[in-house]
Amino acid sequence: MSETFMPKIPIGHWADLLVQFITNHFEGFFGYIAAGIQSFVDSLVWLFAFMTPVVFILLLAAIAFWRRGIGVALFTLIGLVLIYDLGYWAHAMQTFALVLTSVVLSIVIGFPLGILAGINKTFHRITTPILDFMQTMPSFVYLIPAIFLFGTGMPPGVVATIVFAMPPTIRMTGLGIRQVPSDLIEASDAFGSTTWQKLFKVQIPIAAPTVMAGVNQSIMLSLSMVVVASLVGAPGLGADVYLAVTSLRTDIGVEAGLAIVIIAIMLDRISQNTRNKKTGGS
Amino acid sequence: MKKIEVKQATKIFGKNPKRGLELLRKGLNKKEIKKKTDLNVGVSEASFHVESNEIFVIMGLSGSGKSTLVRLLNRLINPTSGTILIDGEDITQMNVEHLREVRRKKISMVFQGFALFPHRTILENTFFGLEIQGVGKKEQIERARYSLTRVGLKGYEDSYPNQLSGGMRQRVGLARALASDTDILLMDEAFSALDPLIRREMQDQLLDLQSDMKKTIVFITHDLDEALRIGDRIALMKDGQIVQIGTPEEILMNPANDYVEHFVEDVDLSKVITAGHIMTRAEAVSNNRGARVALQLMNDNDISSIFVVDRTKKLLGVVDADDAAAAIKAETPLGEIIKKVQSVQVDTHLSDLFDDISKSPLPLAVVDEQGRLLGLVRRGAIINALAGNTPLTRTTEVQNP
């Protein structure tokens, strides 16, 4: 490509310079973030260990029963017992902590941004191409700056996961807010609502099912990043799969992969939109 | 008292509406402006006022600007120019806080598509306005319950909107507006989405409520029958302009132009003409007179029965010639031979008279609110009126046939 009539535009070089600049000037700042993420994940892992597998399994089965009923509860129970039986419990808990941290941060950052995008047209127009970029850029690429900024281990894994998994939450929150019927907005204005009252009493509650659909997608995307995150040293089931691939161990690959599938299906079903019991369907 | 006063209110949609305003002042109409620019004239220099306790109907076909006009009144849409006074205060000049206060305390609104919040119960929907105002929880619930009782929805507090029929949903919309206890009620095609029977029922209920609430109601509709039924005064709109304002009778009798005339052509007369319009003078005898006087009056007027009234002209009943003759022989007092008679209020529409007159062998007595005899309605007069032969000039005054 060097003999073209046009000189190469040094996009790669610019990206390099940008990351270098950020690393040089904001290293301390990113260090704090990395430490924060690490301690959040660590406390989750500690909490799961403190709960013991029995309590953890029963708790999740109970949540599944409350959200979806007996079928999903049974699946959760059997699936988690199987993971325990196969000997992947500790790693599963690390993966669980990674996913949970990413999802919580995705919601904390993505939900307000989504609301802003739902209310403000200009902001919506600016964010849409950025979100497209975030979702379509191969997820491996995020690992490179993540290593520079956050070192290795859990924090860069979490950050790369957030970048990849957050867009659906932003998109669907914005969509949900925009889809609130205009006559309901008029009604809340006509009764003299402030912007905040309108947001919290009308727009967010009505957008809630759509927002939940976005959160569900974010959870699924987080799980899909588990193996990728292990490339930068994030521990858990992803690391097991990575190890299995590099050492051609079918047994470990299948078992760890199965554990990821179980966690994925479980989280998907629990977080999926249920029919709203209160409004009796429709 | 003028509750709402609108002066030269104009709304032009599109970029650079000021340009449209100039063209409008040069005398161009909606279509010409649309052709010349890309501006859409919603409301064009509308002026009117609404009295306290009045039901003011704004009526026009879709696209006539009536929904835009009603939204200018609480500034859901900002007018391009003009002034809109609510209780003498110009709403177009208010800052956000002041406007919000007016919307909370003075004006409430009922919407065509009901606009109920699907995530809230009926009770929670009803106290929405009060919740927004920051009224105490206990008072919210109390006032919402009272409001629901008034519209006949007691017992549905914990249901959700999607569990209710269309008519019931709009009752919730009405209850929600009433709960805020504002003086002004804006109703934007409130009953248009309902089927005709339910619509009629809702109109009656609104009139019932209005008779003891005394609100100032601005009612938008595209249905002339509805406008004539509930409006004290009607404003007719076309292409963003108000073409005529008047009482239902004025509009029917003296259409301002071809447009209005075309509009009112197909009106069902039985819903406009009242008993007062077609009644004729009724012969009556005072109850302190004897049967002899009654019979004499019947002979003089060539009738076979006569109404009996007391000293205040209150209707007591009817006496027929046979009974009067018998009473003279037996010397019984007039009071003992009075029979009950079917009576109707003076403002009853013809459509509501059909049933009564078909059941009654005698003409119907027409009375005022105090029960005083004003006149009578014969079958022939009703048919004559429906044939279009009655000028609607007689209101309450009684003329000899």
Query: What can be said about the biggest beta sheet of chain B?
Result: 6 strands, mixed
Strand order, main sheet of chain B: write it out: 6-7-8-3-9-10
Q: Would you identify the CATH H-level superfamily of chain A?
A: MetI-like
Element order, helices and strands of chain A? Answer: HHHHHHHHHHHH
Secondary structure: helix percent of chain B: 25-40%
Most extensive chain-chain interface: A-B, 22 and 27 residues
Cα end-to-end separation of chain A: 58 Å
Total strands of chain B: the figure is 16
Which value, in Å, is the CA radius of gyration of chain B?
Answer: 26 Å
Give the quaternary arrangement of the chains.
Answer: heterodimer
Which helices and strands appear, and what pairs or packs with what?
The complex is a heterodimer of chains A (282) and B (401).
Chain A: H1 11-68, H2 70-86, H3 89-119, H4 121-136, H5 140-150, H6 154-165, H7 167-178, H8 182-190, H9 195-224, H10 226-230, H11 237-246, H12 250-271
Helix pairs in contact in A: 1-2, 1-3, 1-5, 1-6, 1-12, 2-12, 3-4, 3-6, 3-7, 3-9, 4-7, 5-6, 6-9, 7-9, 9-12, 11-12
Chain B: E1 2-13, H1 17-25, H2 30-36, E2 40-51, E3 55-59, H3 66-73, E4 81-86, E5 89-90, H4 96-105, E6 107-110, H5 122-126, H6 128-133, H7 137-150, H8 166-179, E7 184-188, H9 196-213, E8 216-221, H10 224-230, E9 233-238, E10 241-246, H11 248-253, H12 258-264, H13 275-278, E11 284-286, H14 291-301, E12 305-309, E13 315-320, H15 321-330, E14 343-345, H16 354-359, E15 364-367, E16 373-377, H17 379-386
Parallel strand pairs in B: 3-8, 3-9, 6-7, 7-8, 11-12, 14-15
Antiparallel strand pairs in B: 1-2, 1-4, 4-5, 9-10, 12-13, 15-16
